[in-house]
Specification:
The structure holds three protein chains of three kinds. Chain A has a seven-stranded mixed beta sheet with strand order 14-15-16-13-12-17-18, sandwiched between helices. Chain A has a six-stranded mixed beta sheet with strand order 9-8-7-10-11-19, with helices on both faces. In chain A, strands 1-5-4 form a three-stranded mixed beta sheet, covered by helices on one side. Helix content of chain A is about 40%, strand content about 15%. The termini of chain A are far apart. The radius of gyration of chain A is 23 Å and the shape is globular. Chain A folds into two domains: about 260 residues, Aldehyde Dehydrogenase, Chain A, domain 1; about 180 residues, Aldehyde Dehydrogenase, Chain A, domain 2. By secondary structure, chain B is an alpha/beta fold. In chain B, about 45% of the residues lie in helices and about 10% in strands. Chain B is built from eleven helices and eight strands. In chain C, about 40% of the residues lie in helices and about 15% in strands. In chain C, strand 8, helix 10 and strand 9 form a beta-alpha-beta unit. Classes of the chains: A alpha/beta, B alpha/beta, C alpha/beta. Strand 18 of chain A pairs parallel with strand 10 of chain C.
Chain lengths: ~500, ~300, ~325
């Protein structure tokens, strides 16, 4: 059934709308200043330098964070090495598991506090931090805690052992969740950790440091150092780190891979993506539209596996776009702490600039831009949900990762054409396929060169589900049984 | 409700093979999202009043008597004695034999009389009996007829028969509005719900309705969402608005408000009136009244202070 | 004696027949044939690309000596253009090989073993001619045959060992399985020119990858002959491409080519390793280092070697309620 976008339109600007429903913040205390978490203690940085983390929705400062230099990183690595040798690697695996279970439980107890701070620091809507980020982070610790005394069963015919000290560098889009993805499997396998959160979103990592202290983990098992790229480089360059785990851009991933060339340091990289979400004419169209929305507008589009390219079969293209535009009108952009907000604040002014640059590029390239008509707050960094139509494979907005709520829409006629377009990218992190026909799902998902394929769904995550990319989207997997391997030596 | 809705030229029989499929898990996820909407303060008060105005206050029991129906009508006209500025409900819904009583009791209150018909709730009678029952209810004063579709025929794939029955009942309704009950609890799949919705709308339904209330599950948000989406697609296709009535199982104000959220985000402004959206319910009104009283006084309420009819 | 060895090394077409050195004829170029003796036919060692045996487009060659230090053969010195063609062939063959059923891949690997078994004596002689003792050569060939049988058996099993169905908390069926990473380049071990080659090649193709191999530079003859075995074993053209040449010249291209997904480096040269790893960054190539000098123990006989050049794909689908 085709629908015409012009005629018989729906009006979502309704007389009845939702009153503000702010999540209360009175149970949350953010300190003025956070020091480095090294050897089980909060210590000042050698340089005594601090930087400020801002609330991207209000552009107001939240707290000062210690800027870790090479000296501090070295201190953290030494603490991690000491803990590795003296405590952690030799500890009964079941006991390691119990410590990790404790972290999971305390996270669950303090869930709402973490959700509020995550939304304040990073700009993501409270609905997501409350319903997705924090519960998933806790679930991740819970999942890997159970592996601690079972890892040998995951690798038939092998004896397993820890790798040593892991240096972990995480991005700003899922600050707590990425910390959990990194720390949980590392600890379960008997490694110790030096973690660096992103400089724009360090707060929940520092709260996690409190949790780790509260769980009474042996000092030095987890060390958390804050800072920007230089701090990350100090971790990558440190000679006594056995493994680097990085999540971030392909550009930085390349630099890390290069820096580690010729060393014996192992690494896993979770990098960028430009996922295609393929909608066939026989798909459940309304659910496909939900998948498109969830694929590109989830977390403001700050998602490496975002479905940023929509490939829709020509026979239903107008219909799907009509449905999508209607759906976009119901998306609420604004205060991340409002329980009804669907799309929060863009993480930083820098990222907003990048997104705006791509909006310019898209229009210059001749694509047609459509944005929802929602109101935006006066202060803070915001971007309306955006769809580009009339784009071609050669356009930059089709090829490059924008990392914002910006969707490029292309059409196709045949299955082969859809698959060819989907794979025509250096990336290979994720993909989506929507059809009611079972055989087509298997055919297309089989041909997609991507580490995660969502069939008739999108942007789903689970601790038990391995995640990671083909090609330039990264090396190695995180999550599930397969996420253990990077943290183990097999003999 | 206005006289017979404008009948734009309607295709004879819909091509059901072109009805987009429904993915169950996706529908459940979307419905769950509506439930995460937080409705507070003025938005909540406005919503509660809107819910009241959309209620088809219903009694459909074998033990119904004229006395019972008169009490219900009294309640419909004056929902609460202590609160003045409340809207009236939209209609009172009764069996055909009670239509005359209800008509008389409601007088010129502006509240419609709705009558179930066509061998409610099973629909297992011959078509001429169904038509006769419909005409009698209309003659007795029903403004709205709630018919049931032949689920057995639908499940056997006799779509044409189901379609023709609705067309015939619609004709028998004359000026009365026709609500078509799909009895979704017997249709089994959401794909069936969507197809039955399309069938009913193309056959001339003014409203589509989930359930008789006699079969479990009755109305759910998921089923209602599928039907709302079918209404939207039909409107896109034909330009004709069709109303929606979830019925059965909606007894709490909070849930009813979530239905309004779903209505708002699926069909938007035009449908947010009693003309296009109804709740078929018997005990919902009192829960809404309790919530309104709570909003006003700040104190949680007891059912003992609200009249049950 | 030296001449006899050369003949054996070159007389590949009389597979297996050249068991006894005493009955072999003299080579025509390197020794003067007496009137009564038959003039032997000497083999030209060529590249193996896309199922064909071309000479290097560069027309260049290098000499390989035998165990006594005397010239054994002229070997193609492949150029970067030959490598480029090999990658094109490997890429073209990838989708077909990836989608060849696991059962059939196993059959084909087993077929390679059968073909190699049939030419065992030739390979023993070739390995002997480039320096191995007879006993060592025999062991190496037999190990190579057995390794092929070993990985033939894994073709339809490793997926069962390494895949998983993942219990997720939402209403979805979620499973992870292995898929070949794509085009894999292999710098074969300098020593152990046949077993080392097979030990690294077999797990890569068992897993559905297509490969471009650089043979041992100093002992390439067995590798080239092995390509002939592959060619007669129903291995589709382009699945295995074999180059001979100078690693110093070709390494950077093996590592930097943007259409190569993974690189297996068998060696210990720290400078080369750093160079490869540095160049691999340009397309986030997977770099697998195999630094052992033995290829006959458990370290090179396990399914984790297949996993090295596999990607894990996780698929989600709603289950319904």
């Amino acid at each position: 059934m085709s629908s015409n976008d012009q005629e018989n339109s729906l009006n979502f600007n309704t007389d009845w709308s939702y009153s503000p429903a702010p999540e209360s913040t009175d149970h949350v205390t953010i300190k003025d200043r956070y020091d480095l978490f090294i050897g089980g203690e909060f210590v000042a940085p050698a340089s005594d330098k601090y930087f400020t983390s801002m609330n991207p929705a209000t552009e107001e400062p939240l707290a000062e964070l210690a800027e870790a230099g090479a000296e501090d990183v070295d201190r953290a690595v030494k603490a991690a090495r000491k803990a590795y040798k003296q405590n952690w690697s030799g500890l009964a695996p079941a006991s390691r598991g119990k410590y990790i279970y404790r972290i999971a439980r305390i996270l669950q107890e303090r869930a709402r506090e973490f959700a509020v701070v995550e939304s304040m620091d990073g700009g993501k809507p409270i609905r997501e931090s409350r319903d997705i980020d924090v519960p998933l982070a806790a679930a991740h610790f819970f999942y890997y805690a159970g592996w601690a005394d079972k890892v040998d069963y995951a690798f038939p015919g092998r004896k397993t052992g820890p790798v040593g000290v892991a240096g972990q560098i995480i991005p700003w889009n899922f600050p707590l969740l990425m910390a959990a993805w990194k720390i949980a499997p590392a600890l379960a396998c008997g490694n110790t950790v030096v973690l660096k959160p992103a400089e724009t979103t360090p707060l929940t990592a520092m709260l996690l440091a409190e949790v780790i202290a509260e769980a009474e983990l042996p000092p030095g098992v987890v060390n958390i150092v804050t800072g920007a790229g230089k701090t990350g480089a100090a971790i990558v360059d440190h000679p006594d780190i056995d493994k680097i785990a990085f999540t971030g851009s392909t550009e930085v991933g390349r630099i890390i891979q290069k820096a580690l060339a010729g060393t014996d340091t192992r690494y896993t990289l979770e990098l960028g993506g430009k996922a295609a979400n393929i909608i066939f004419e026989d798909a459940a169209l309304d659910q496909a539209v939900e998948g498109i929305v969830n694929g590109i507008f989830f977390n403001q589009g700050h998602v490496c596996c975002a479905g940023s390219r929509l490939l829709v079969q020509e026979s239903v293209a107008d219909d799907v776009l009509g449905r999508l535009k209607d759906r976009m009108e119901t998306l609420i952009v604004g205060d991340p702490l409002d329980k009804n907000t669907d799309i929060g604040a863009i993480n930083s002014s820098m990222q907003l600039e990048t997104i705006n640059k791509y909006l310019e590029i898209g229009q210059q390239e001749g694509a047609t831009m459509h944005q929802s008509s929602c109101a935006l707050p006066d202060k803070g960094h915001w971007c309306r949900p955006t769809v580009f139509t009339g784009v071609a494979q050669s356009h930059r907005i089709v090829q490059e990762e924008i990392f914002g709520p910006v969707l490029a829409v292309q059409t196709f006629r045949t299955v082969d054409e859809a698959v060819a377009k989907a794979n025509n990218t250096p990336y290979g992190l994720s993909g989506g396929v929507w059809t009611d026909k079972g055989a087509k799902i298997f055919k297309v998902s089989n041909q997609m060169r991507a580490g995660v394929v969502w069939a008739n769904t999108f942007n789903k995550f689970d601790p038990g589900s391995p995640f990671g990319g083909y090609k330039e989207s990264g090396v190695g997997r995180e999550g599930g049984l397969h996420g253990l391997k990077p943290y183990l030596q097999l003999a | 409700m206005s006289a017979a809705a404008e009948r734009i030229e309607i295709p004879a029989f819909p091509d059901l093979s072109r009805v987009p499929r429904v993915d169950e898990v996706g529908i459940y996820e979307r419905a769950a999202r509506f439930r995460t909407r937080s409705i507070k303060k003025e938005a909540k008060m406005d919503a509660l009043k809107m819910v009241l105005s959309m209620i088809d206050l219903t009694t459909l029991e074998g033990q119904d008597t004229p006395g019972k129906v008169r009490q219900l009508c009294a309640k419909a006209m004056r929902l609460d004695t202590s609160m003045e500025d409340l809207p009236k409900v939209a209609a009172v819904c009764v069996y055909p034999t009670m239509v005359g009583v209800a008509r008389e009791a409601l007088g010129d209150s502006g509240i419609n009389v709705a009558s179930v018909a066509t061998g409610f709730p099973s629909g297992m009678t011959d078509l001429d009996l169904k038509l006769d029952e419909t005409r009698r209810a209309v003659v007795a004063g029903a403004d709205e007829i709630d018919m049931v579709i032949s689920r057995g025929a639908f499940l056997r794939g006799e779509y044409r028969r189901v379609f023709d029955e609705i067309v015939a009942v619609k004709e028998a309704c004359g000026d009365a509005h026709l609500k078509v009950i799909l009895e979704t609890g017997e249709l089994n799949t959401l794909d069936n719900v969507k197809r039955a919705s399309v069938l009913a709308m193309y056959a001339g339904a003014d409203f589509i309705k989930t359930s008789t209330g006699k079969i479990q599950p009755a109305a759910t948000m998921e089923v209602t969402l599928v039907m709302l989406q079918a209404i939207r697609d039909f409107y896109r296709e034909t330009g004709r608005m069709v109303g929606m009535k979830p019925a059965g199982g909606i007894s709490k104000a909070k849930l009813a408000v979530h239905y309004l959220v779903m209505l708002r985000e699926t069909l938007g402004q035009a449908w947010m009136t009693p003309e296009w959206f109804r709740f078929g319910a018997s005990s919902l009104a009192n829960d809404v009244l309790m919530q309104i009283a709570k909003q006003r006084s700040g104190a949680y309420q007891s059912p003992d202070y609200f009249s049950k009819d | 004696m030296a001449n006899d060895e050369k003949i054996m090394a070159r007389a590949d077409s009389q597979a297996g027949a050249a068991g006894s050195a005493g009955t072999a004829s003299k080579p025509h170029r390197l020794a003067v044939a007496s009137e009564s003796e038959r003039v032997g036919v000497v083999k030209t060692y060529k590249l193996y690309v896309g199922g064909k045996f071309p000479r290097t487009e560069s027309g260049r060659f290098y000499k390989v000596d035998d165990r006594k230090g005397e010239p054994l053969a002229n070997i193609c010195r492949a150029s970067r253009k030959d490598f480029r063609e090999a990658v094109v062939a490997a890429r073209a063959a990838f989708s077909g090989w990836q989608n060849t059923s696991a059962f059939l891949r196993g059959q084909i690997l087993y077929r390679i073993a059968e073909m190699l078994e049939g030419r065992k004596e030739q390979f023993v002689a070739e390995l002997y001619s480039t320096g191995a003792s007879r006993a060592a050569a025999k062991t190496e060939v037999e190990e190579a045959i057995d390794r092929l049988v070993y990985f033939a058996g894994w073709c339809d099993k490793y997926q069962q060992v390494f895949s998983s169905v993942n219990p997720v908390s939402s209403s979805h069926f979620n499973f992870s399985l292995m898929e070949p990473t794509g085009v894999v380049t292999i710098i074969a071990p300098e020593k152990s020119p046949l077993l080392g080659l097979v030990a690294n090649l077999a797990p890569a193709i068992a897993g559905g990858n297509t490969v471009v191999v650089l043979a041992s530079e100093s002992m390439p003859t067995a590798a080239v002959s092995f390509a002939e075995v592959l060619h007669s074993s129903d291995v589709p053209g382009g699945v295995v491409n074999l180059l001979t040449g100078q690693s110093e010249e070709l390494l950077e291209h093996f590592a930097s080519h943007m259409d190569v997904n993974a690189l297996v480096y068998c060696g210990t040269d720290k400078g080369q390793i750093k160079q490869l790893q540095t160049l691999a960054c340009d397309n986030i190539k997977r770099v697998i280092l195999r630094r052992q000098d033995r290829w006959d123990d458990d370290d090179s006989r396990n399914p984790y070697l297949i996993a090295d050049t596999q990607e894990i794909k996780t698929t989600w689908h709603p289950i319904g309620r």
